[in-house]
## 1
Amino acid sequence: MYSILRYACSTDDIAMRLFIAEKPSLGRAIADVLPKPHRKAEGCIYVGNGDCVSWCVGHLLEQVEPDAYDAKYKQWRLEHLPIVPKQWQLKPKASSRKQLSVLRQLVKQADQIIHAGDPDREGQLLVDQVIDHLKVKGSKRETIQRCLISDLNPAAVSRAINQLAENKTFAPLSTSALARSRADWLYGINMTRALTLQGRKVGYQGVLSVGRVQTPLLGLVVRRDKEIEQFVAKPFYQVFAHLETSQGEHFKAKWQPSEACAKWQDEEGRVIAKALAENVAARITDQTATVTKSLRKVKKQPPPLPYNLSALQTDAAKRFSMSAKQVLDSCQSLYERHKLLTYPRSDCRYLPKQHFDDREEVLAAIANNAESLNQAVADGDTALTSKAWNDGKVSAHHAIIPTARQASLVKLSSAERNIYELVARQYVAQFYPAHEYSDSQIDLEIVGGLFIAKARQSVLAGWKVLYPARNSQKEQKPDLAINRILPDLKKGATCHCAKGEVIEKLTTPPKPFDDASLLAAMTGVGRFVKNPDIRKVLKETDGLGTEATRAGIIELLFKRGFLQRKGKQIYAAAAGKGLINSLPEVATLPDMTAQWETQLNAISQKAGTYKGFMQPLQSALGSLIEQSQSVLPVGLKDIKAKPAYKKFRKRRTATKKPSGKAAAG
C-alpha cells in the first residue's frame, strides 16, 4: 500500500532515481524488479516507488565528420592532412534525437542518476557521454551511481541494484574508451583519405578504408595468402627405431639429430638429406639400444575455463562453422530476448566466488533446458571448486555462463541451441574432476645416436567425459601418437633395435584462414608481432579489437570487398591485396594496434593517461601520411570498387567526395 501511495504523489514530493540503461531490453529488466504499479511513457517506465527507468538505444551520440570542424574538409585534399580537432565534438544521431530529448527532461527531474550501461569499456563511455552532453553538474553529477548488470534474470538484476557503486570510480574505464574512440577517428579519417587519394591516381574509384584494427587484420590474411602462393613443398626425413624388449614388448623411438647434423637440417630442425637419414637407419638396424633415461609422471589437466566471447566464437566456428557475427547475434538473443545466458560481450573467463552459491540453480536450469546434458549434470559434483571461481580475475564483467532461468529450448533457433549447449557444457565441466594422464618418455642410445620414445595414457577421464569428440588419438601431438603405451624400462636396461625406418614427408603450406583461425589470430596476435619486447608484453594482454568489436570488424572487411570466402576458407580479395601492398608496413602489422590495446588497458587500470596515449599518435600521423604517398598503389589498377560501396559514396555526398564517416571501424 505504501508503494502505491508513494507512486500517486507528485515527483515534487519524493526523490526520484533515474536509471539510464544502455538498451530498452535492459531498461525493461530493471523496471521488472522495481515496485509496482508501473506506468509506461514515451521512452521510459515510471515505477511504484517514484523512480524512473529510461534507456539509450545504443549510441545516442556520434563523432561529427571533419567538415563540422571546417567546411573546407568536405573536399578530400592531401594538403588538409592530418586533420586534428582542437575541440572534439559529438552530435546526436538522427535516429535517436527523440530518445535524447526524453532523457534531457528526465535528467532535469531526477534527484539521482544511476548509470546502467553495459558492464564494459564502451558501455561505460556510452552513458557517460550522454550525461556529459546533457550537462549534468554539481551534486547530481557527484552522486551518480553505477549499476553493473550481466544477467537479465530478476534475481541477478535485483542483486545488482542492491550493490551500486560510485560511478566516478569507473572514470578510468570511460577515459580508456574515449581515447580509443578519438584515436580511431584520427587514424581512420586521415589514413583513409590519404590512401583513397592515392588510389585515384591509378583509377581506383572506391574508398580505401583504413583502420587501426581492420587493416592489420587484413594484413594478416594478405600475408598468409602470399605465403601459400609462394610455398614450395620440400621433402624432409625422420628416422624411427623399431624396438623390442626381452619380454617381447614392441615400441618405436624417434631419432634426435645432434648438432653435428645441423648443416643437413632446415631452420626448423628437420633433416633434409635423405642419404643421412638412410645411413642412420642402416647403422641402427639389428643393434642394441641402451636406456639412458626413463620418466613416467602422472599429470592433471583442470577443466577448461568458462567461455569469454572470443573463445566461444572460436569453438562455435570449429564445431558448427558459425561466423563470429552469427555467434555474437545468437549470444545477444540468448541474453536479451531469452535471458538464458549472462552478458555475452565479455573478455573474462572467470567467475566471482559469490556466483558459486548459485550453482545448484544454474545446474538445475541446464538439466531442465538441455536434455543432452541432463546426465552430465547428474554426474557432476557440486562440492568441487574449479579455478574458474576467482574474484581477482574478474573486473567489470565475468565469463559467459547459463542463467538460472528454466525454459523450453523449442523456441530457440538451431544456432541459439548450439550456443546455449556449448556454454552450458563448459559450465558443467567446472564440477568434474581434473583429467589425469600419465606421460612416459624413454631416452635410448643406439650406436651413439639419441632416440626418444613417448606415450600418453589416460588415468582418469575426469571432465573429458563431457567432450568425447575431443579425445581422439588424432588430437594428440605426433610424438605422443607413435606409441599407445611404453614398456616399464629402467635406466641402464637394454633392448633390441630390430630395424631402422626412414619416413619421407613433405613440408606443408600454412592453412588458409577460416572463421576459427582468424578469431584465434585476433586474440593471439602476439605471435604475429615482430618486436620481441612487444611480444613479451602481449603474452597475456594481446588482441586485435575487443570482444565486442571483432565480429563486426571481420564482417566489415567482407562488406567493403577486401575479404572473400571460398567455402569455409577466407582469402583476401584483389582490392584488399592492393590496399595492403600500398600502405606503409607499420600500418599493416598488428604491432601498433597491439600497443594501443596495452596502453588503453593501462588507462583503465590507472597506469596510463589519456594525454600520454594521444600525443604520440598525433605526432606520428604526419609521418604515416607522408609514407602512404611514397608508393603508388599499382595493384589497384583496373580493379573495380565493390558496387555497394560505390553507392554509399554517391549517397553520402553530392560532391562525389567520400565521406569521412567511411573510415569508421
Note: The chain is about 40% helix and 15% strand.
## 2
Amino acid sequence: MSSDHLVTASTAATELADESAPVDRPTAVDEVVVLDYGGQYSQLIARRVRECGVFSELLPHHVGAEEVRKRNPKGLILSGGPASVYADGAPKLDPELLELGIPVLGICYGMQLLALKLGGKVEGAEVGEFGRSQLTVREHGRLFDGLPADQACWMSHRDTVFEAPPGFTALASSTASPVAAFESTERGIYGIQFHPEVVHTPYGTDVLKTFLGDVCGADLGWSAASIVEEQIARIRAQVGDAKVICGLSGGVDSSVAAVLVHQAIGDQLTCIFVDHGLMRKNEGEQVIKAFRDQYKIPLVAVDAEDRFLEKLKGVSEPEAKRKIIGAEFIRVFEEEAAKIGDAKFLVQGTLYSDVIESGGGTGAATIKSHHNVGGLPDDLEFELVEPLRALFKDEVRAVGAELGLPERLVWRQPFPGPGLAIRVVGGEATKERLDVLRDADYILQDEIRNAGLYRDLWQSFCVLPDVRTVGVQGDERTYGYVVVIRAVTSDDAMTADWARLPYDLLEQIASRMINELREVNRVVLDITSKPPGTIEWE
C-alpha cells in the first residue's frame, strides 16, 4: 500500500471516532446498499454500482435490516461468497431484509440464499462452474430486457439453483446451472448466478443498470466529482477556525485531500512533507513546487534523507526496514507538528477501501493502522479530517481532476510507504544503490510515458536485487547490478496480471539502462502475476 495517507492506530484518535456513524455519504442522492457475504468481488460490486451513477455502500452481511433501513436505500444487493448455503456457520439471510419494501438483487451466493429462503431448490453440483460460461436467456423478463438471448458470463460457484422459488420466473440457464437467473417483479426480488460486476461478463453493466434504474428507480446521475462542494461545506463545519495539519506524501490520496481541505479553509491548513530520501527521481522537488508555488498551500518541507539513511545502515530485512522508516517518519512528523503548535485537526487521505478493510463498513469510523508507515503515537491527539473516506481510488482521481490537479499527479501510480528502500531487495538501502535504482526507474517511467502506456498500467517500477552479474561492455569484463522491470495491469491491486509490454519498448528500456548507468549490466523482466506473486517484491 502506498504512503498516500497517514493513518493512525492511536488510541486517542480512535476514541474520537463515532462508532455509530456511517461513512459521510452524499446527501440528497440515491443510494443502493451492497451486503458483503465474503465474496472476492464484493468491493467491485459497489464500485460498479457507483460507475453506473448510483452511490453505494458496502456493509457486512450481519448488520441487520435496521442498519440498512437507516440509509433509506433505493435497493439492496446481496453479494457472492465462498461458502455453501448448507455449510455449518455459513452466512444467513435476515428475512427482514426482504420486508423493507425495496428491490433486492442476489448475486451468486446471494441468489442461492434467496432461493433457499423462498422455497427454491439449491444443491451442490457434481461439477462446479468457475470462469467463463455461456448464458442462455429463455425469458427476458425485466432483468434481461433488450439483451441478447446468448451471451458470455463469469461464474464462480459450486452450489447450484435447480429450481426457482414458487411464484418466480426462471429467466436463464448456463453451462452448468439449470437456473442461472430468476425474478419476481411482483415482489421486487431478483437473482443471478453469474457476476455482472466483472469485465468478463460483457452485458453485466447493462443488467446492473436495469436493476438500478428501471427496477429501483434510482437516479443515475451521481459522480465522485459532485461531492466537492458538499465536502468543502462539511470540512468548514467540522474545523471552524482551528489550525489543521496534513502529512503530505505527494501521492494521489494525500494530495487530493490537501487541496480539497485548502479550498475549504485556506491558510488554516499547513502541510508537512517529509522527504526521506527514498522517493523517485525529482519527486520531492515536484511536490514542493506544486503545493508551495502552484497552489500556495503553506508547506513545511523537511529534507530528512541523512537521518533515514543513517537509521537504515546495515539493515537488509524488509520488515525491519519498514519499522525503522515508520518510526523515524513519526519522529520527524511529530517534531514538525510541535513547531506549528495549537493544531487540532489532522488531514488523512483515508479511502473507502481502507474503511472496509479495517472493519469500518459497519458504520464504525475505525482507523486503520498503516502497515508501511506505521501509526502515530497515542499522545499525538488530533481529530481526523477525512474528506475522501467515502471514495474508492478511481473516484479520488476524478475529484483530483475536478479540483484541477495536474494529470501527472492525479494519475501517479501507487508507491509504497517505505519507498525505494523495499525495492532494494535482499540488501542494504545505501545511497549508491538507491541512486542506481532511482535512475533506472526514471528511464523506465520516461519510456513508458513516451510510449503512451503509463495510464494503462496499475504499476510499473524497477527492483534492484542484491545480485551482481558478469557482463561484457566495450571488450571489458564488468561486474554490475541486475535491474528487474516489474509492470502489471490491475483494477484494484487485489489481483494483477503482468503487463505485455511491446518487445521493442523493452529493448529500448534495457538499452538505455545499460548504456546510461555504468553500474548496470543486465536487465530482466518479471512475468509473475498476482496470485501467486505479489506486486511488490517485499
Note: The first strand starts at residue 31 and ends at 36.
## 3
Amino acid sequence: MNGCEWTVDVVQPQLGRVTLVREGAEPWTTSLRELMHHPRCRPSTRTRADLPAASRGRQPKALADLPPQRRALVALRMEHLLEVETGYRSGDALRPAAGEPRPGYDPDTTTLTQRRQHKALELRQAAAADPDGARALALDRVSYRTLIRWDRGRIRFGAVGVADDRWLREATGRRISPAVREALFAVRAETLHRSKLTAKDRERLVHQYVRETHGAQEPVPSYETLRVVWREWFGSTGARQRYSRSAARVQENATGRHVVVHRPGQVVALDTTILPVKVREDVFGEAVSVHLTLALDVYTHSIVAFRLTLVSDTAVDVAMVLRDVMMPLPMRPDWGEDMEWAYPGVPATLVAEFAGHGVAGLPFFAPETVTTDHGSVYKNHHVTEVQRVIGANIRPSRVLRPTDKQAVERAFGAIQSLLFRILPGYQGVDVADRGVDPEGDAVLTVAEMEHMIATWIVKVWQNRRFGAYAPSWDPAGDHSPNSLFAASMVQGGFALQIPPAELYYQLLPTHRVMIHGKRGVKIKNLWYDGAALDDYRFAASGRGGVARNRYVFHRDPRDPCFVFFQDPRTHDWHTLRWTGLPEEGRVPAFGDARVREVLREVRRRGMAPKSDAELLPVLLELIGASVPVEQWPARLSPGQKVEHAREVAQVAAAAADRPVPAPQAAPPAEEAAGAGGATVTPLAWRERAETGQCAVDAERRRRREQAVPARPVPPPRLGERLRAVSLLALPDEDDTTVAEETR
C-alpha cells in the first residue's frame, strides 16, 4: 500500500482486526473490512504465481533488457517454436525457406503434439552430437514440457517470454552496512567543500570515520566496492569542485517540478553568441566579428527576434530584442508574397492595418517567461525594470542544467550548419578548423548579413519541417514553426496586441534629475534643453520618495545626442537635444565613451567651458575631423577604426528603434571596390570625416555671426564714382564750379 509493502504482524480474527508493520514506519492497526476495501490494498507482485520470476516485485521484463547475445538466442528459440506451430521458421507460409515444411513439421500431415515431440528429439540428437555448441545456444536441455512452457510464455509476453528468468535475475547490488552508508554520506558532505581528493583519499576518510564512530571491529568493503558505490550514488568525480558544489546546491533547492510548455510565448529562450562569420563594418570596411542575439519561442521553436551588434549586447539591446518579440516584423522591399503573414483566423490585411505596414510571416506575442543565462547584462536594474514594463518574468537558467536553455543552443548549431558554413568568411568551430584568411574572405557587410539572416529565418527556418521537436499530440505529423503556431491559434486563439510606439521610451534607462532654470537638465555630464521644459523650469515635480521633487528622463546610451521627457500633464513624449549640437549641419556619431574622453581632454587642457557648445570642437578633434580626409584611415589603428564603426552602428540602431525618424538622416554611403575588384564594400569613412569638417565650419560661422549681430555697410570701392560718369562728357556749370572748389 502507498507504494510500499506492509507485512502482517498480528491477526485478531475474533476482533476482526489486523496489525501491519513496515520498516521505518509505525505499526498500523486496522480492521479486516477496511483493509479489504482499501483502494491501495493489492496483492504483492512478489508472491503472485501468475507472473514470471523476472517480473515479480519489479517492472515487467522486456526484450530490451537482454544483452545482444541473449537476444540472438531468443530469436533462435522463436524460430524453433514457429516451426513447431506452423511448419515454417519464419511463421509465414508465404515466405518458406528452402525445403520447408520438413516432413516432421508439415501441419497438413502432423499434429502439434507430434511436432513438439519431433522437435524435442531433434534437439536432443543435436546436443548429443555437439554438446558444447548446444550448451552455448542454451538448447542442451530442451524437453517436450520445455517447448510447451516456451510457447505459453510467447503467447502471454511475446518474444521475451521465451527467455530464461535466470538471464534477468534480480540485481541485488552491493551489501552496504548502515555504518558504511553513514560514513559515505559524511565523507561526501566533508569533501564537497574541500579541494579535490582522489578515490584513495576518500577511502581513507571512510575507514577513519567508521573506526572512530563505530569501532575498529566494523567491517569496511574493499576499495573497488567503495569506488563503484560512490560512482553509483554520487556520480562521476570528473567535474571540478566549483561545479560540483553548484550542482549539489541546486539539487538541494530543487522542487522536482517540470515546466510543461503548451502555448506560444509561455517560455522564450534568449542567448547571445559570436557570429562564426567575419563581416565588414560599414565605416572603414574592416573585417570584424559581431555578436548574434536570438530570442526563440520554446513551444513553436520560432526565432521571433534577433540582433547583430559589433560589441556584446547591453541592457538596452536586450530590451529592444524583447520589444521586437512583441512587434510584428515589417515586410522588406525584396520579399515576396510567400513571406507575408499567412496564419488562419487573422487576415494579413487586418494585421497590416493594426501595424501600419505589411507584416512578414513571423509570430509576435507578449512573452510570459524569458529564460537567459547568467550574464551580467541580464541581472542589472534596467532589465528588472524592463520585465516590469512588458509584464514578463526574466529568469536565469539553473546552474549546470543545460536542458533549461537547450532549445536556443540547438538553434545556434542548426543555423551554423544550414547557413553560416556556406558563407564566405566562415571561421570554423575552433582554431584548428579555421581557414587561412577568413578576414580576407569576408565580403558581406553587417547590414547585408542582417538582411540575409532575416530573410533566411522568415523563408526557411519558419517553414522547415521538425525532426525531434514534433509536438506530443502529433509526433508523426509534418510540422514546422509556422504550422505549429497556426495550430495553437486554432486551439487557443490569438491576441492581436501590438504595443504602442511609446514602448520604446519606456524601455530606456531612466535618470531622475532637477531641471535647471536656464540650462535645462544635466545627464551623464551633458546638458539637454528644449521647449518642452519651459512650463517646468523653476518648479518641483512633486514626486516623493528617494527622487524627491525630481523629474524622470529617459536616455538611450547608444545615442547621447538626445534624451526623452514625458510631459507630466499630457503624458506626451518630447525629445530634448544636446545643447552642444549645432543648429544646422550634422555631427559625426559618438557614444558615452567618446563623451568621457572629451571631458578628460577638457580637464587636461585646463579649459572651463561656459556651455556645452564649447565642447563640440574638442569632440570633433577627437573623432578625427581635423585630420585630412585622405590621411584619416591611415592615421587610425585597427582598434580605433572598430571604435568608430561601433559608434556609427549604435547610433544607427538607436535611430532605427525610435518611433519617429531620426532628426538628421545619415548621408548615403559610397561604394568602393576592393582589391582586385572582387569585394565591393561601402566605405563611409570619407563621409564621416567630411561631416565632421562641415560641423566645424558651421560652428565657426555661428560664432562669427553671434559676435557681430549687425553687419556694417562696406565703403565704396576705389574709383567707383569716376567709373559711374563717362570721361568724354562735358561737365555742366555746376560741375565746373564743384571741380574748381575741389582744386
Note: The longest strand covers residues 267-274.
## 4
Amino acid sequence: MISFVIRLRSRAHFIVKSNLGGANATFLGARASRRKEARQRLAILIAGFLAVYFIIGARLVQYGLAEPAVTGMIGSSPVTSRPDIVDRNGALLATDLNMISLYADPRRIVDANEVVEKLAMVIPSLDWSETHKKLRSGTAFQWLKRQLTPKQQSDILALGIPGIGFRPEKRRFYPGGPTASHVVGHVNVDNQGLAGMERYLDQQGLGDLRRAGLTGGAPLEPVRLSIDLRVQNIVRQVVANAMTAYKAEAAGAVILDVDTGEVLAMASVPDYDLNEPSRTLPDGSVDKDYEKGWFNRMSNATFEMGSTFKSFTLAMGLDEGKINLNSVVDASRPIRMGGFTIKDFRGKNRPLSIPEVFQYSSNIGTAAVADRVGVEGHQQFLTKLGLLSRMETEMPGVATPTQPRTWKKINSVTISFGHGVATTPLQTAVAAAALINGGTLIPPTFLPRSAEEATRMSRRVIKPSTGADMRYLFTWNGVKGSGRGAQVEGFHVGGKTGTADKVINGRYAKDINFNAFVAAFPMDKPKYIVLSIIDAPQTGEHGGRTAASTAAPMIKEIIGRSAPLLGVQPRFGPPDAPRLLENY
C-alpha cells in the first residue's frame, strides 16, 4: 500500500514537472518571437527613415540642379552690405541704406490679374505685362518691385494679397550726388559695383565675399579715398561752369600731389547723379543722352594734348644734353617735310632761345629740338614717361594711348608739339609731375599714400638738373607767356597751354579745338599739378577759342579757390627760385 502511494506521488510529481517544463518552453518561445518582431519593426523604421532621408536629399539635389535661377535668388542673401566710402578727411561719399523690396511666390497666386490691378494702384510705374508674366511663371520666387518707399510697403500690406511678401535689401546712397561721380562710381540694383572705385572694391574681393554670403554681418571698415571732397566740389563746379560758359562739348580737370601721386580731385563733365545712374523718360525708355555722362574723359579717353607736349620735348632735349637753357634754335622759317609744312601760330620769324620757344609755343623750335634727339630717342623718352602705354592705377576702364605703328621723322616732328600721339589727360598730368618733382615718375592713386610709400614705387626718369630747368621754364611761361591767364596772386603758378586742332572722322578740323593747360604751384616749391581740358569750345574769355582763353582761366579759378584748402600759404613777391632773367 505504501509503495503504491509512493508510486502515485512520483507519477504526480512527474506530471507536474512535465507541465512546468512545457509552460517554460512556451514562455521562452513567445519571448523569442517578440524579439524577432521588434528587430523587424526596427529594421522597418530604419529603412523608412533612410528612405525619407534619401527622398529629401534627392529633392534638394533636384532643386539645386533643375532650378538654379530660382534657388540661386532665394539662397543668396539680399542683405549684403558694402563698406562706406569716405574722402581723405573722413567726409562720407557713399553708404548703404536699409530698404524693403516686394517679391511674389507665383505658386500661391490665385488670380494674377487681380494682383496686378491691386499693386498698380500703389505702384503707378508697375509694368502690367511683365508683372503678369512673372506671376504666371509657376516658379518659387519673383521680384516684383525693388526698393519700395515705406508708404508703398504699408499700402501693399493693407491690400492683404496672399502669395506676396517683402525682403530687406541695401540701397547705395551718395550724399554728394554728381560731385565725385567718375571717381566714386556707382552700383546696380543688386549693390554690385559697376564703375569707378565702387567697381574697384568688387575687383579687390568684395564681389567674392558677396557671392559667399559673408557681407551681411558686422559692418565693413570704411574705404578712404585720396580725394578731398571740398576741393573736388570746387573742381566740379569750375569745369561745369566752363562747359556752359564756353559752349563746349565737355570739360574736365584733375589735381595731383607731385610727391605722392595722390589724386586730390578729378572731374569730367557731362557727368551724372550717382543716386540716379540711369534716368527713365516719361514713355518708360532709358535716357541715353543722360547715360553719356558715365564717360570719364580724364582717364577713360585719349586726346592729342597739343602744345602741353612741348614740355616733354624740351625736357627730353635738356635731359639728353642736346640743349640747355642758353641754347638758340632757328625758328625763322617754316619746316617743309613729306608734303607737310610746319609753321608757328603768330611766329616771331627769328631764332629763339629755349625759354622763348616755350613762351611763344614755337612748333618750329620744338621740332628742331626733337630732331636733335632723333626718332628712336624721342620714342624711348615718351615711353619712359609712361605716355605711350596704359596707365596703372586703381580706376577701372583706363584708356590705352595711341601712337604711330612705325615712327618716322615726320611722326617725331608732329609728336614733338602734341599731334600724332593721343594720351589720357590724367597720365599727361602724371608725366608733368615727374618734370616738376625733381625727376621721379610716381603712379597715380585714388587711395591715400604716404611719401615713403611713393618713394618705394617711384622711378627716376629725368635728371634732377633737368627738373630744375623745367621748373624754370614753367615759371617763365607763367609770368611772361601763355600761362599768364592762370596766374593767381600769391601762389606763383607756372605751366603750359595746349591748343590742338580736334580730330573729326580722321581729319583735323581747323575751326574746332581741344584745349588743355598743365600747371604747377607754388613754383618756388611745387606741390601740386593741375590740368584742365575743354573740348570744342565755341568761345572763351575776350572771344578767343585757344587754351589761353579757355583752359587757363579754369586753372586760375581752381587754384585760387582750392589752394588755401590744400594748406598752401600765399606768398607775395617774386618767387625764390628759379630767378627769372629779363634778357637772353
Note: The two ends are 169 Å apart (CA to CA).
